[in-house]
Amino acid sequence: MTPSRASPAPDSRRPAWRRGLLKLSGELLAGDKKQGLDPHALRWIADDIKTVARAKRQLAVVTGAGNILRGRAAASVGLERSLADGAGMLGTVINALALHGALSTAGVRSLVLSAFPVGNFVAPYGAARARAALDAGDVVLLAGGTGNPYFSTDSAATLRAAELDCDLLLKATKVDGVYDRDPEKHADAARFISIDYEDALARGLEVMDRTALAMLAESRIPLVVFALSGPRSLRAAADGAGDFTLLKAGIKTRMAPRAKTRRTTTARSSSPSSSPSKSRAKTKTKTRAKR
Prior knowledge:
Order of helices and strands: EHHEHHEEHEHEEHHEHEEHH
Largest sheet: 10 strands, mixed
CATH architecture: 3-Layer(aba) Sandwich
Number of strands: 10
Oligomer: single chain
Shape: globular
Helix content: 25-40%
Distance between the termini: 56 Å
Number of domains: 1
Number of helices: 11
CATH superfamily: Acetylglutamate kinase-like
Structural class: alpha/beta
Strand content: 15-25%
């Protein structure tokens, strides 16, 4: 990894990077609907990805499928776990194709690659093919998880990040980082500014599943956990700005002052379909009502 022009300290929260991987939860593609695909959310996210791609950075994307089907949920109604996971992996292909269409509309070239054969319209994944597409300036959409049951899309994201020699992994969620306890249940929950991987594993923090987190610790790829909560929030996290948590091997564990930590954002305010203008309109309405 090349040093940044600012020559930061070893525990800087702004790691320099050229090639990164974005882990995008399926729920974010559903917007306010919570399920399925929201066209406005897809456009919003595609525009945010565009700002990063146009900054001469290479970006791969792994999508979840929680907006369509979760493997464990399907297993709970009687579908064998391996088949349920397979259905979930198909959901990631649907999401990748939808994002591919949104990126095309935004004027961004992208390539969808699947971890397993799904027909002539999606090329099979190969690390060499993915790296070549990234070098050519394409956003590479990695579908199908790892191609195997019992592995989460978080594990798929860490595996692909290592295979593609990524400098950074960005995990987009509805929460502005990693907390020491569930902020929805504990008002005094505090957000980590930065934390070492081994410390995160020892504390049992639910950043990713343990397999994924251990893989990141071994590969020493930094992880940024941030909220995809407004326009250019991805670009801000990519540039090391705003509120987020950086996980990195050997970094000093630091906590944000409790007065500055944020509670988990609501689904409405954190979804891609919400906009600052709508939020300001709601605030004005509430103010008038009080008067």
